[in-house]
Amino acid sequence: MQNRKDELGSPVIWGVLFRYETGGRRDNMLRNIKTQINILARQKGVNICFWLLLLCVVGNYLRNIWYTRSIDCGNFRKMAGYSVWARDNVFGWYILTFFAFLLVLPGGLSLAKEKQTRMEYMLICRSGGRMRFYVSKIIAVFVVTFLCFTLPFLIELVLDYCAFNVPVEKNWNDAYVTYCQSQGVKMDYFLNEIHQNAPILYALVRIGITGVWTAALAMVPLACSCIYSKYYAYLMVPAYFLLLIFQKTKFSVFHQNITHNYLTYFWWLDDSMDEKGMIVFSCLIGIVALVSIGVILIHAYKGGEET
Amino acid sequence: MKVYGKYYVFPFLYGVIISLYGSLYSKSTHTFWSIALELNGGYLEYINPMSIGALIELYMPFFFYVLFFSTYIYRHFCNSSVYVFSRCENRMKWYCKETGKLLGFTFCNTLAIYMGYCFTTILARKLSFSLKHIWIAGWYLSLFTLWCFVIVLLANIVAIWKGSVVGNVMALSLPVIATFSLLTIDCKHLTAIAWKHLALNPCAYLVADWYNVTLDGEKILGVLGPGLSIRNGYIIMSAYGLLIFLIGMIVVQRIDILENNKER
């Protein structure tokens, strides 16, 4: 009875979305996704990725506590300035150095492992078809990667809120802007207005954007593991090259010059990037993700064997 | 080589991508010397967490090589345990031959990275050829080959002894730990202990700017007072390599893979 209740207890919106697929059983697709998320969440790669990021967060927090132990609280930076993703933060740098490794851990490895152990066939049978299996896999990898790359930073936000959120005077913002102008610091970085008025909202939005970007980039190793799954080390290579190209080359898209490396776009409070560049970079990541999803769906449709 | 040729596409492409920024968008010409600088630690005046991060970033193509070849001797050892060692008792001869091949592959990997960079630079007609600078290219190729060989040999030996996962983790984490340990050194005020620490750390020899190099009476490299010696760099790398090679001899002689399968 309880099981029956669970089956029907899914949100109506999902039932409506996937009704055309499942016929009689409205929540079949949702169940597939839930199963995939459960499988992924228990994988060693996901745990390693999450704990490594959490380790960076805790390390950064302790480092901030150490450096601010002797300064007056009036001289504290705004909260977002203490984040791992704050500009030139050393832990953020380390995360981005090993970004290709971290991207592969949640998504890429799971499908490769399922292919190697032939568990894929059992899951395809349970899902009700190859296409459903791969669609649910894409959604599950997206969700799990998003959570992996957002939860540690949300924890950091709470920690920073407890330690560094000092109430400031009302005219603090004006004084800060005047100071920046006198120092020649540009104040036109992405979401500058939100950061000035609501730093917590700024941090939340940036954590969300980072999560979506990484989740979209995680489609690359997933697509690679569809085609090749023999050696795990090879799955990192395309993601690494992609990030290297973003980092090391200059190129022009729709008359918009991409002159920064991708690291700049992941960092917060960076005055060298503007909104237009940010949107173009998001579009680039979107295109990469769409191509990867296309490859996965073609593979699912054709039902080809991997090498 | 025919089988392993595909593994050199990655380092070559790495060299090409790394060079795009320097060759195609920069107006200045390159020499063998500046290419070698671009591919290693380069101008590293201060040791801080950021510069250590930048240094580790340069290890990445070598780390990929280690991942690809970390089971080269190990795989052959597994096969040989069944087919070769039963007929040919001399394991040492087999081990020396495999180690020699691995050294050759490692050299090809370093060369492929360098060639990738040179390829784009030549295409962009920005390579200025000078025989004076060619020894710097030789320095880069030999020292990085030795360093990478030490790591990949360690990965293989530990893989035979404790399993491939332990081998990979150990081989990749040791250089990172060695590089992070450089953080304790103050480049500006080198004490005797700090100097010993620097001179014994193999990763310190990968930063070109820490050598004292004079060319045509002009000091072209060297931010440290005394400066590291290139000869010492070779000695240190060779010593570590020899130590791991000898340990490998003992491991190969004693381990019987049929009785100690670590991959189960």
The SSE order of chain A reads HHHHHHHHHHHHHHEEHH
How helix-rich are the residues of chain B, as a percent range?
A: 55-70%
Structural class of chain A: mainly alpha
Over all CA atoms, what is the radius of gyration of chain B? 20 Å
Please summarize the sheet with the most strands of chain B.
2 strands, antiparallel
Helix content of chain A: over 70%
What is the topology, as strand order, of the major beta sheet of chain B?
1-2
Query: Which spans of chain B have pLDDT < 50 for at least 5 consecutive residues?
Result: none
> Any idea what the shape of chain B is?
globular
Give the termini distance of chain B in whole angstroms: 30 Å
Strand residues, percent of chain A:
under 5%
Identify the biggest protein-protein contact and residues per side.
Answer: A-B, 16 and 17 residues
Read across the widest sheet of chain A, the strand sequence of neighbours is 1-2
In terms of topology, how is this protein built?
The complex is a heterodimer of chains A (307) and B (264).
Chain A: H1 2-8, H2 12-22, H3 28-41, H4 44-67, H5 90-97, H6 99-104, H7 108-116, H8 119-127, H9 130-164, H10 172-183, H11 192-197, H12 199-217, H13 219-227, H14 233-248, E1 251-253, E2 256-258, H15 262-266, H16 275-302
Helix pairs in contact in A: 3-9, 4-5, 4-9, 7-13, 8-9, 9-12, 9-16, 13-14, 13-16
Chain B: H1 9-23, H2 32-39, H3 49-69, H4 72-83, H5 91-123, H6 134-162, H7 164-180, H8 192-200, E1 213-215, E2 218-221, H9 230-254
Antiparallel strand pairs in B: 1-2
Helix pairs in contact in B: 1-5, 2-5, 2-6, 3-5, 3-6, 3-7, 4-6, 5-6, 5-9, 6-7, 6-9
